[in-house]
Amino acid sequence: MNKTKVAIIGCGTIAETAHIPAYLNNPNAEIKYFCDAKKENAERFVKKYGCGIAVQDYRDILDDPELEAVSVCTPNNTHASISIHCLRAGKNVLCEKPAARTYSEAIQMQKAQHESGKVLNIGMVNRFNKAVNIIKDLIENGELGELYHVYASFRAHRSIPGLGGAFTTKEISGGGVMIDWGIHFLDVVMYCSGDPAPKSVSAQTYSKLGRNMKDYTYMNMWAGPPKLEGVYDVDDFVTAMIRTEGPSITLNGAWAQNIGEDEMFIDFLGDKAGIRLQYGGSFKMYSAKNGVLLETTPKFNPGDHFQNEIDAFLNSIRTGEKQPSHIDTVIISAKMIQAIYDSSEQQKEIIFD
Ligand SMILES: NC(=O)c1ccc[n+]([C@@H]2O[C@H](COP(=O)([O-])OP(=O)(O)OC[C@H]3O[C@@H](n4cnc5c(N)ncnc54)[C@H](O)[C@@H]3O)[C@@H](O)[C@H]2O)c1
Prior knowledge:
Layout: E1 4-9, H1 13-25, E2 29-35, H2 39-49, E3 53-55, E4 67-72, H3 79-88, E5 92-95, H4 103-116, E6 120-122, H5 130-140, E7 147-155, H6 170-173, H7 177-192, E8 198-206, E9 237-244, E10 248-254, E11 263-270, E12 273-278, E13 283-289, E14 292-296, H8 305-319, H9 327-346, E15 350-351
Parallel strand pairs: 1-2, 1-4, 2-3, 4-5, 5-6, 7-10
Antiparallel strand pairs: 7-11, 8-9, 8-15, 9-10, 11-12, 12-13, 13-14
Helix pairs in contact: 1-8, 3-4, 4-9, 7-9
The chain binds nicotinamide-adenine-dinucleotide (NAD).
């Protein structure tokens, strides 16, 4: 079997920590190009991994008929344009999350996927996470009874990324904690609940602790250091209430809040049992039987969800099998996130048709 030739577009953190190791580990893939707008980043990866060709502009490689697939690992403002361009050139695309900054950009990506017939998966990596899939199966098998509500908390004490940089500049990121962390939490909720159609969204976002950039006090900063001459115009706290055709959902998320400890969990509440998933970790199930309360701690091999995501992408290119991270599925949460921002801005509940 010929190896699938891949290009990495955007040679930064997520490419280095997740995509590249997973492609290198898959016997059916070969990284042919490393591409970065800062060519030295691409050159560093050619040297580090001992493979591939460094290029600065991804458009220069789209005529290569050997190139079948690309991983789009660039900042959010480029996801739609690069993905659409690559799809139209006949390439299969795995685009990092969020699909795009806005719902309308995500719709354009979906349209390009439908017209090209190529794969467009979005990096909703939790759909390939073992714990998440076990919970999904438990819910589907009725172990929780009726799943009536899901509560997600993704709140950190002080964790604003790269203050003044790409993450905190709406023009580049599309939003703050909701689009950056919240998308993963909402996606886990949606996936485990069977991707129910949303009915309405009411939300409030805040931009509080990072607003006075020079006064922001913190212990450490990922994607830093701060650029005090930069922009901070995104949400650092979001609270939302969502009605769906399945469970209702509440989200509480903060990059920064004056709280003692970070809280990163999702509670799946059924009338027979409940589950608390520690985000990125394991879960416990709570129920009652024969007059006693039960607490169940599962044991399983967690595996590597990024490897599973890349393997599934390569597999879908060969077989045409639609993955759970296909744009057609993920577009629902893009619509909900847009409604969260719209609800806050317009100070009203958003009702879906
Ligand atoms: N799935 C996850 O859990 C996860 C985790 C982290 C980041 N991400 C997503 O991955 C994306 C990248 O994040 P990151 O932390 O790796 O950022 P990063 O800044 O470390 O890397 C981005 C790279 O893209 C390059 N770049 C920018 N514009 C480009 C263009 N037009 N063409 C080619 N290269 C370009 C930059 O020079 C940089 O090297 C973001 O969308 C982010 O939301 C996802």
